[in-house]
Design a protein that fits this description.
The complex is a heterodimer. Helices cover 41% and strands 15% of the residues of chain A. Chain A is an alpha/beta fold. Chain B is α/β, with parallel strands linked by helices. In chain B, the strands form 3 sheets. In chain B, strands 1, 2, 3, 4, 5, 16, 17, 18 and 19 form a 9-stranded mixed β-sheet that branches. Chain B has an 8-stranded parallel β-sheet with strand order 6-7-8-9-10-13-14-15. In chain B, strands 11-12 form a two-stranded parallel sheet. The chains are: A alpha/beta, B alpha/beta. The complex binds zinc ion.
């Protein structure tokens, strides 16, 4: 059991078999995670560094716990986004980290493609923990894992992703992954926040949120950054909630047992109503637990590959 | 005396190629004809090869002064010679900017000392290329600037652009416009479209180029002033210029080899060598550029040679510098993608790369004729080779064509009767 690739840079290009492998492994990891003694030795003697050029406590913690539960050494490097252009080059930073004997580098970076650049220049496995507006593959994998656990299968699910699709790496990764797994992906949001030709990626585009939600098995909200309004992409957050917010009324259009998901952190009352976040259909907290399981699975599968390759 | 024997000559004047010998003395062509009897001390056997006027580049960046770590006039002109260019016009976006007669003279003196091919400075339209005040265009012309351009930056202020066109017209000077509406570019880093969506990179709408092409055409039209549009990259720009030419607007334009040889799909993998401004577009645009070259809408091919140090390219895509090191692939790309594919004849290619640019810049180059400067290249059209950037004479190894197989190669380059490249080796 191993992935054949060195890195996980995105879900674009991942095969169905690879995704299934990751999801199946995550199931086993979840049982470790839910047990009393969360400590196994799968990654004993391995080390992982989180290299974060953007703040994200939740993603960083999730990776760190995942590594620790598997017995790996961890360290974290935080670099401020403002020093991306001025500081040490990404390649130099990566090589320095690698020289300390690190097996896996988990990178979060404000610029799309940064993990790809790093991966080209280091032998360590690189996991993309979010790059610019490109991909956030571990988030999409945990989303798919959650759907699979709740719905039994991903094939045939209707998944509505609502909000700022243009700037969402979560949406992009989910579109790649879900379409590969046979789900129907619908995206809805203001036209100024919709990337061009996204239909060609396999998503159905809606500009009326009700149409996207109607009959959906899963409704996923995305965080709306306030700076989108400042940049003039939206007239106001109030109108956004009015036209595109995920509300109780709109959720009634979805299937009765539809899941409500959100990658967090949530802007309550902006992209989704507070009651839905805390309501019975919400699986937002479970997504967090599943995130650790998915990251455990990936760390395991990628370091196994290194093991096989070296020996 | 130098004699080029038995080559197939395209002279930039006659509409057909012909087989002839060319005799050169004291830097000039002194005779063209069949089987010339001569006592030349040096003979180039061009049998089976083509003999063309040296290529003329109306748009390149030699980086000196200020960015000598990317390129200097010595390395840049050696690169030009290797690519078959015998005359190049260099842009003014150096540091300091070429915006004074003193700077024009400085470039000329460096070129005289270190240049391997002829260098014609293009001076800035506005002081410091800041887009605020016009340069002393009259003095720039007297000092030897062949054209005016703020290339690298657009002149966003339409009123200022209008004044520039008006003032330059009185001096018979050509303004070369870099068309890019910065408010539409925003923080985009590649062509906006399916590929920018797939790669999660911020897109630059084609409208950013086209809006300004349209503006400049209208300004030139209302003033009956000449204007030259740099690096045309979109179908929409080609169409705007086509319509303008039909109306009699005094507009000329250029495209660069990468706009008919590559698309935004080449950005995949976040290859910063495919990052250029304007950005690589789509297959549909490539088609339109080829059509524009064929029907004459696009007058010339310019390299927009933009060498960069690898430190400026081996970074995150969004931070990488724009530009392609273009001298040494330009002819092969044009031959492979335009002549081999039947879009242009060799005579037309010479028009686009030698005669046409020389006419637009109003310099004595671009043809092979008795009494003319002996700026001549010999090319092997059957030669297939793989581009290897490590062999570039340019300091800039930034080319997305590395590893690509191209056809047609410049073998010898002669500037003012002096062989500067022989058997694919620059020898000065
Ligand atoms: Zn330009």
């Amino acid at each position: 059991m191993a992935l054949k690739r060195k890195d996980l840079l995105g879900l674009r290009g991942l095969t169905r078999e690879e995704i299934e492998e990751i999801l199946t492994t995550a199931e086993k990891m979840k049982s470790i995670l839910l047990s009393d003694v969360k400590k196994v030795s799968h990654l004993q003697g391995k080390s992982m560094v989180t290299l974060f050029y953007e703040n994200s406590t939740r993603t960083r913690f999730s990776f760190e716990f995942a590594a620790k539960y598997l017995g790996a050494h961890t360290a974290s490097v935080a670099v401020s986004s403002s020093s991306v252009a001025k500081g040490e080059s990404l390649i130099d930073t990566g090589k320095t980290i690698q020289s300390m004997g690190v097996d896996v580098i988990v990178i979060r970076h404000p610029m799309s493609g940064a993990p790809h650049l790093l991966a080209k220049h280091v032998l360590a496995s690189v996991i993309n923990a979010g790059d610019g507006i490109n991909e956030h593959p571990t988030q999409a994998l945990l989303d798919m894992f959650t759907m699979k656990q709740k719905k039994g299968a991903i094939d045939g699910l209707k998944v509505a992703i609502i909000g700022d699709i243009l700037h969402s790496r979560v949406a992009r990764s989910n579109i790649w992954g879900l379409t590969t797994m046979g789900a129907e992906v619908r995206v809805a949001g203001p036209p100024t926040l919709m990337p061009p030709d996204i239909e060609k990626m396999g998503a159905k585009v809606f500009y009326r949120v009700e149409e996207a939600i109607r009959g959906a098995d899963v409704v996923m909200g995305l965080r709306l950054q306030r700076e989108r309004q400042q940049k003039g992409l939206l007239p106001s957050l109030r109108e956004y909630m009015h036209l595109f917010g995920i509300t109780e009324e709109r959720i009634r259009l979805a299937k009765k047992d539809a899941l409500i998901m959100h990658p967090g952190p949530v802007n309550r009352g902006v992209e989704i109503s507070s009651d839905l976040v805390d309501g019975a259909q919400s699986v937002i907290n479970e997504q967090v637990t599943n995130g650790v399981a998915i990251r455990m699975a990936l760390l395991y599968l990628l370091t196994r590959r290194n093991h096989d390759a070296v020996h | 005396m130098l004699c080029i024997k038995n080559g197939m000559v395209v002279d930039g004047i006659l509409a057909v190629p012909y087989k002839a010998d060319i005799l050169i003395d004291k830097g000039k062509v002194i005779n063209i004809g069949k089987d010339i009897e001569n006592t030349a001390d040096e003979v180039i056997d061009a049998a089976g090869k083509w003999v063309l006027p040296g290529l003329v580049d109306a748009h390149c960046h030699l980086r000196e002064p200020g960015f000598e770590y990317k390129e200097d006039i010595g390395s840049g002109t050696r690169s030009a010679a290797a690519g078959g260019f015998t005359s190049v016009a260099c842009m003014a976006n150096t540091n300091p900017v070429v915006d004074s007669a003193a700077m024009v003279n400085y470039i000329k003196s460096i070129a005289m000392a270190k240049g391997v091919v002829k260098v014609y400075p293009i001076a800035a339209v506005t002081k410091g290329q800041k887009g605020e005040e016009l340069t002393e265009m009259g003095e720039l012309k007297e000092a030897g600037a062949v054209a005016l351009s703020d290339d690298g930056r657009p002149i966003m202020n339409s009123h200022l652009m209008r004044l520039a066109l008006q003032y330059a017209k009185g001096l018979d000077m050509l303004i070369i416009s870099h068309c890019e509406d910065l408010s539409l570019v925003g923080d985009g880093v590649m062509n906006e479209g399916y590929m920018s969506t797939v790669l999660g990179l911020k897109g630059i709408t084609r409208a950013a180029e086209e809006v300004m092409v349209a503006r400049d055409i209208i300004l030139a039209e209302t003033l009956d002033a000449p204007i030259h549009i740099a690096h045309v990259s979109t179908r929409g720009s080609v169409e705007l210029i086509r319509q303008a030419k039909r109306r009699g607007v005094r507009v000329t334009c250029e495209t660069a080899p990468h706009y008919f040889s590559a698309t935004d799909a080449w950005v995949d993998g976040y290859d910063a060598n495919a990052k250029v401004n304007p950005p690589l577009r789509t297959d549909d645009d490539v088609e339109a550029i080829k059509q524009g070259l064929k029907d004459g809408t696009i007058d010339i091919i310019a390299t927009d040679h933009a060498p960069h140090h690898r430190d400026d390219k081996e970074v995150e895509y969004g931070l990488a510098a724009n530009g392609i090191s273009g001298f040494e692939t330009a002819f092969s790309l044009a031959y492979t993608n335009l002549v081999e594919t039947g879009i242009l004849s060799m005579v037309e290619l010479v028009q686009k790369m030698s005669k046409g640019p020389a006419d637009i810049l109003n310099i004595d180059a671009g043809t092979i004729g008795v009494g003319k400067p002996a700026d001549i290249i010999v090319v092997d059209l059957d030669r297939e080779y793989t581009v290897d950037v490590s062999k570039f004479y340019s300091k800039g190894k930034n080319s997305p064509f590395h590893g690509h197989t191209l056809k047609g190669k410049v073998i010898h380059t002669i500037v003012d009767g002096r062989i500067v490249m022989k058997d694919e080796r620059v020898i000065v």
